[in-house]
Amino acid sequence: MSGNKEEVDPRINGIKTKIRVVPDFPKKGIMFQDITTVLLDPKAFKDTIDLFVERYRDKNISVVAGIEARGFLFGPPIALAIGAKFVPLRKPKKLPGETIFEEYELEYGNDRLEMHVGAVEAGDRALVVDDLIATGGTLCAAINLLERVGAEVVECACVIELPELKGRQKLKGKPLCMLVEYR
Amino acid sequence: MATEDGQDPRIPKIASSIRVIPDFPKPGIMFHDITTLLLDTEAFKDTIDLFVERYKGKGISVVAGVEARGFIFGPPIALAIGAKFVPMRKPKKLPGKVISEEYSLEYGTDKIEMHVGAVEPGERAIIIDDLIATGGTLSAAVRLLERVGVKIVECACVIELPECKGREKLGETPLFILISSA
User: Fold this and answer.
1) Do A97 and B38 touch (CB under 8 A)?
2) Helix, strand, or coil here: B55?
3) Mean pLDDT of B88-105
4) Does A175 score more than 90 pLDDT?
5) Testing the interface with B: which of A36, A98, A131, A159 to mutate, by most B Cβ within 10 A?
6) Share of chain B above pLDDT 70, in %
7) Which residue, A23, B16, B125, B154, is most buried by CB atoms nearer than 10 A?
8) Is B107 a residue whose pLDDT tops 90?
9) DSSP state letters, B66-133
10) Do residues B49 and B79 touch, judged by C-beta distance below 8 A?
């Protein structure tokens, strides 16, 4: 994780070695960070979750918001372990009830992130979880959604950071916790 | 809703935490929304516990989950029973080499995909999704895993819509569900 003692946590190297880098996906020049290979190793997957749970269990977090779809792999186990509710943040038209949305930029054009009305309440303390932070656009949209309904975003948590894309700067001053950097 | 396992006292609470939304995604469909279950920390924990109690210690090395709501229930079960989690995804989402299986929709077909090498012949698997309706997606997942020599011990869902006869599509593969919504 970023900073202090977790840099020497022996579990982190084990997780890092399980991440598969797939060149030229989804397009040429992109080195895609594939976490599905972490999920195939029960110890590495458990260690990933444990590292986040240890960090958040005593922080009175009432909401874990996970970004579709890979945030759904890490968010629920964390939520269950710390006793928080899990809120899926989804692409348009997937959530069946009344939603609010936040737009964010893609390389070409925009996309939207949606959340169910009523899922999160004013005063909730929230964590936002995704597998990876690149430019930070999606995470920024997630923070905006949560803050609009009066929640306090305590931290963003990602397994992987691509620091050269400077996503940290897009997080409206919220701290980022990550386990593995890829340069 | 009626309950599959009338005996376990946790099930009525789980059932009542699920929201039914009429006419989504189109008129006439009563959509079973599990997101409200995920907001109830006790109900979500009980849901996972019920599956874990059933599958722990049964030599299951693979939990396969169908995108996207299967990703919410599958990983906690996999972690608790010490199995790997294998995501089964819509086309073009998985970055590595994949194998795919087609299945029928009301109009046309769709595919689900799995990474080559994620599972090995002889592994014992369960397949998780939030709900079984017609069984199209689940039966495609079964075929995909069986093609690579995996034994499907059971399919497991939170909710079944029995009128959609999904169980029949699964043929010989057993199905375990918590809640039956007729």
Assistant:
1) no
2) helix
3) 96
4) yes
5) A36
6) 97
7) B125
8) no
9) ETTTHHHHHHHHHHHHT-EEEEEBSTT---S-EEEEEEE-SSSEEEEEEETTSS-TT-EEEEEEEEES
10) no
User: Is B39 touching A (CB cutoff 8 A)?
Assistant: yes
Is A41's CB within 8 Å of B24's CB?
no
- Tell me, yes or no, if B55 comes closer than 8 A to chain A by beta carbon: no
Nearest to A45 among B33, B72, B85 (CB): B85
Say whether residue A45 is in contact with chain B using an 8 A CB cutoff: yes
**Per-residue pLDDT tens digits for B43-83:** 999 999 999 999 999 999 999 999 999 999 999 999 999 99
pLDDT computed for residue B110 by the predictor: 95
Listed as own residue / partner, the contacts of A26-30 with beta carbons closer than 8 Å and 24 or more positions apart are A26/B92, A26/B95
pLDDT at residue number A6: 46
Task: Please name each of the domains of chain A with its CATH number.
Answer: 60-181 (3.40.50.2020)
Residues from chain B contacting residue A22 (CB–CB below 8 Å): 95-96
State pLDDT tens for residues B10-22.
999 999 999 999 9
Q: Is the dihedral of CA B3, B140, A71, A106 positive or negative?
A: negative
Catalytic residue among A20, A55, A68, A70: A70
Is pLDDT above 50 for B1?
Answer: no
What residue ranges define each of the domains in chain B, with the CATH number in brackets?
Answer: 58-180 (3.40.50.2020)
Answer whether A73 sits within 8 Å of B85, measured CB to CB: yes
